[in-house]
């Protein structure tokens, strides 16, 4: 999977400006006079450097009249949520095995549709006029991939014995028979996870329809005659059930003239990318500590701006006319949170010993700490004044009242127990996803234990359409590998030993094979609460009902007879009568040239090693590899803990893939990983040794402390953006491994960001947002070093 980055990202972060988070011109129509009749204008990390690591991007798609086509493709690293601005589009996608159902819909202006990550999808203009759509994608670099070539056409090829065992066929297989082999792949797959398009909680996934992925009416103006002068129409999993597990949502924001304000707030579970459709907006956000810099910009129609996940941000209409913007958010339930209440106002309260050690304060209140306490009172006012108070649905709305959630909803015991491997493939995957840990819902991460039998235990070639995997070997010796995306389809492989770590990028074919005489065990973190498994070839040519032959013929530049033959091979026999009612324009598809398939291959280079300037052709297995996570670390410091972080700095191949791994060592008798927040990541932690007292605090208005004592083999989840900690309550050392749903999780102190930004946020914004007088705001800013002059 080649991941693409820009050298501009290497700049000193202190030099970052509003320009790094800004893009202009998305309102300009593009030329669609090409063979496909469409043009995609991306606003991803290449255009907006500040998107790097933030897991979201935006695109404008222009379609020519009478058949402009955005051809069938898959984004291996992103879910797409599309809203039509002009014209009429016929769109669809195909679900994963074993059903391979075609979900389709005709969209009109204001309609919204979701294309789940990793699934084949397309858009087709069936109207007589041009069409325009805006798409948000849950990755800063979504990518494009053709899977069939990756399986049987890799360079060098995957070992024949691996393929033979995986597909239960002869070890000698000619490439000409790869279509038949893919049928065997579909039948032999040992992990066939259906796509839960709207979550498993409400309906049988076989009953899901296009309605579960669509929404109408986003082109209608909203009422803004309220206190703040704005109205947010959020399309999350409540409005579009199919968004569940897919990590993205969309919003329309209407602003009243002369000061309509979307007040300062933070989304603990989502980065926001905003495009202005009408009007003029003054927008800004504040960076994390220690700088707490205020990044701001005036936006006009067609301008795009990024608000990184977990950071305080706002938008203000500074013109005499109404304003309208659309925003994509990298979560299906972004949420809103006030951090100060969570730290000092939890119910029950966090232990004073924990807070005293974390903040290096005496547990008794002194005159010096009284001043510090005053700002807490002010931040309580901030919490009460907030006009948008979204509770954290820690285990999803589907099963229970979130106020009833307990530590049990975020924990699991027994992952230290060996599993049975006497099956056909010689492996056993124990997956801890949202089914086993309800609190994982919406949080974009899961964990798995994999047991391998001696002498060839195999986790067969497969792809996770919704998750990058980062694997650490605990016992044994594994031969692992994955195949990059087109056009190179390179095979990246490595032999791993205990303590070694390897990354399998989202959407790519990968496997693990035990090549030793002893059993092997590995743990894997995945960047989705429901990663899924899929066989793509069946989805393209074997969907039910089948994709239109006109769409496939034009997309792959094949004669319609060849398309029909391929559909027969994969059980997707076409009935041309199915398509007569759509009245597709005639003469769109021309007879292809001999090499036209190669001419139409979509080239998407992705720099898998994330070393920002390196030639992607030079990427090697070591770019996805780390050794030594089994070595104890020194905990003789002030807090008595040591975090060994494996992020993009240690494993370059993690860049853009939204996941990382840590080892945490705790000293006996009180070793503490102090209260903190990861603005860009959910954490799922597994205890290997010792006994830990852990906890996190929910968001406003409840600010509840969810706590648990963990023993070896126990697992606990800390939702993205929430205050959390771990404390060793035993007399011996403790060790834990944690996966985080970002390649760069980050740490932030919110109070400083609100009132201590440099330059400071304007008094007008703060006074209106927090319903405070100017003098009170000035005093708070003096306390935090961000005083207005």
From TrEMBL:
Annotated binding of oxalate, by residue: 673, 678, 683
Predominant location: secreted
Cupin type-1 domain segment(s): 24-176, 216-367, 413-564, 627-778
GO molecular-function terms, A-Z: manganese ion binding
Transmembrane intervals: 175-197, 372-394
Ribosomal protein in keyword set: no
Xref: InterPro entries: Cupin_1 (IPR006045), Germin (IPR001929), Germin_Mn-BS (IPR019780), RmlC-like_jellyroll (IPR014710), RmlC_Cupin_sf (IPR011051)
Binding site for Mn(2+): 676, 678, 683, 724
GO cellular component, one term: apoplast
SUPFAM superfamilies listed in its UniProt record: RmlC-like cupins
Keywords: Apoplast, Disulfide bond, Glycoprotein, Manganese, Membrane, Metal-binding, Secreted, Transmembrane, Transmembrane helix
Localisation per UniProt entry: Secreted, Extracellular space, Apoplast
Signal peptide segment: none
Family label: Belongs to the germin family.
Role summary: May play a role in plant defense. Probably has no oxalate oxidase activity even if the active site is conserved.
PANTHER family noted in UniProt: GERMIN-LIKE PROTEIN SUBFAMILY 3 MEMBER 3
Name of protein: Cupin type-1 domain-containing protein
Organism: Salix viminalis (Common osier)
Upper classification of the organism: Eukaryota, Viridiplantae, Streptophyta, Embryophyta, Tracheophyta
